[in-house]
Amino acid sequence: MSSGPEEEPVSVLQRFEKRLEGLVEGAFAKVFKGVVHPVEILNAMQREAEAHKAILAGGRTLVPNRYVIDLSPYDHSRLAPYAAALAQELAQSQAEFIGEQAWTVYGDVIVEIERGEGLDTGMFRVTAEVYTGGEVAPVSAPGGYDAGPPAYPSYDQGGGYGPPPGHGAGRNVRLVSGDGRTYPLQMGSTVIGRGDQANLRLPDVGISRRHARLDFDGGQVVLTDLGSTNGTMVNGQRVSAVALNPGDMIQLGTTTLTFRVDG
């Protein structure tokens, strides 16, 4: 990649603002006049991710994937008609930010917008958690990003936060295309796309030049969409970042790849 301003968090913010503008034809501008603004929330979510990094075995950096946004009762009531759309945009932008930093998450990036009793108008609180599907490891005390340093569990020393069962180290991990071609995955990061900078190049016009990235730490494989034009689907669901399970079907453009684990 050329030195990119695009690698700086500001580009994620700029894209987020553009998407907000088109989301409800300017209604956001009216809703947020004088109250909390979504860009402030996204900024706080980025700071939360930065503040709560944990190093996984294999050197990957794990950050929270679940963000709960508490808004003041007044802001929450004004925002209610747009809450679902805003949560989706915040999640997508946070996933792009995490992807650009080459960090790892467990599963999808999730954003939930809730009513925060006792918060003054214009104030909000962001709480971040690592959500593994069954267990939640809270990493932010109430008070959001200005709370003191959190006690963070060690993710490479057991405690229930290691790779999911069935993802033992040393396994033969590969992708298999619909026509039978096999793409073995190496440790580290593999970028899928149709451009020169992709490690795994697929000649499909529906695929972006840098479409998605696979991160393999010897235990699990995490798939992250890199802000692709047409998105990345796993088992028919659009994803931003997700840990793969054997047999998962990944669709990029018109190409389908099956995730296989042997051994």
Short overview:
22% of the residues lie in helices and 29% in strands. The chain has 263 residues and is α+β, with helices and mostly antiparallel strands. It has a six-stranded antiparallel beta sheet with strand order 8-7-17-16-13-14, with no helix packed on it.
Fold topology:
Blueprint: H1 9-23, H2 27-31, H3 38-51, E1 54-55, E2 61-62, E3 66-71, H4 73-79, H5 83-100, E4 110-115, E5 124-131, E6 136-138, E7 172-177, E8 182-184, E9 188-193, E10 200-201, E11 212-216, E12 221-225, E13 232-234, E14 237-239, E15 241-243, E16 249-252, E17 255-262
Parallel strand pairs: 3-4, 9-10
Antiparallel strand pairs: 1-2, 3-5, 5-6, 7-8, 7-17, 9-11, 11-12, 12-15, 13-14, 13-16, 16-17
Helix pairs in contact: 1-3, 1-5, 3-5
Textual characterization of the structure:
- A hairpin with a 2-residue loop joins strand 13 and strand 14 (237-239).
- Helix 3 (38-51) crosses helix 5.
- The longest helix is centred in the middle third of the chain and has 18 residues, at 83-100.
- The chain is elongated and about 55 Å long.
- The chain has helices at residues 9-23, 27-31, 38-51, 73-79, 83-100, and strands spanning 54-55, 61-62, 66-71, 110-115, 124-131, 136-138, 172-177, 182-184, 188-193, 200-201, 212-216, 221-225, 232-234, 237-239, 241-243, 249-252, 255-262.
- Helices cover 22% and strands 29% of the residues.
- It has 263 residues and is an alpha+beta fold.
- It has five helices and 17 strands.
- The strands form four sheets. Strands 8-7-17-16-13-14 form a six-stranded antiparallel sheet, with no helix packed on it.
